[in-house]
Amino acid sequence: MSPLLAATLLACASHTVGAPVEPAAAPAPPVATPPAQRPFSAALDPDGRALGICYGPHRPGQRPGGPDPSPAQIAEDLELIATRWGMLRLYGSRGPARVVLETIAARELPLLVVVGAWIDDDDPAADQAEVDAAIALARDFPAQVVAVSVGNETQVGWSAHRSPPEALVAQIRRVRAAVDQPVTTADDYSYWVLPESRAVAAELDFLLVHAHPLWNGQPLPDGIPWLQATLDRVQATHPDLPMVLGEVGWATSHDPAAAEGAHIRGATGPAEQAAFYGQIEAWVDARALPTFWFEAFDEPWKGGDSPAEVEKHWGLFDADRQPKPALEWGQDVR
What we know:
Blueprint (H helix, E strand, L loop, with lengths): L50 E4 L16 H12 L4 E3 L7 H11 L4 E6 L6 H17 L4 E8 L12 H14 L4 E6 H4 L4 H5 L5 E4 L12 H15 L5 E6 L21 H18 L3 E3 L31 H6 L4
Parallel strand pairs: 1-2, 1-8, 2-3, 3-4, 4-5, 5-6, 6-7, 7-8
Helix pairs in contact: 1-2, 3-4
């Protein structure tokens, strides 16, 4: 799912399929040997669970680039999140990201954070600012930031914000030289199973993989088998690299007439989301695979004009911060 083209993006990614953009390549310096891997220390959250959450903070009337949520709204969100999950994933390092980390630290919330640096090769200055900000957050909040992800879906062929691999590798190396935390990049499974992905993977401490059964035309009963088989293919391509599932989820609505409705063949709705969330909880607990559910809150700023457009409806809470049945039925509260 590819998000809006916004360097300040903090939300979890959406999956708008667009024509690939091929910016001019910027060569990265050669490397003699792969870097020594740094372990992903948030493999299990403080309560021993491996399931975390993606967080996009923008509410109705807000969007990346402004207006942004207030510090009080962010604090309200984080208090809700901390009752259920111990790991949090952000997609951008500017905008509300610093407020998120300041709030977690000041309130001593038990949340470990993967910080993202949004990369869009069409705007090198913005890329530089994102990477600089991500480095600063990792340094300023070492107790909260457990990893940095440089770029989100920049290599998969359908992405609307592609980056040449050489340019991405150069940014990854810059971050890795500047922080102590493990460093990765997030991309769709369909990129990570390609042989050419090994050159980027060789620069990483772990793979951050997106794998959505719903986006890939799977009905609900086939969701977990498809996910397991898909991740097995990724691991076979990169047998020596640890893996984190960076996105998996199920939407509660979609508009079949919208452009992205063509990708959805499984039924969407609160009951379907609740069923899949329960399956994911059991699957993650059995595997102890670090996983981020997509996502915490509905984001009405995403997608087209249709109120039912699928991009808007992936949250386990609605846009007004009310829990959906997946949470009401499960009562999975610390």
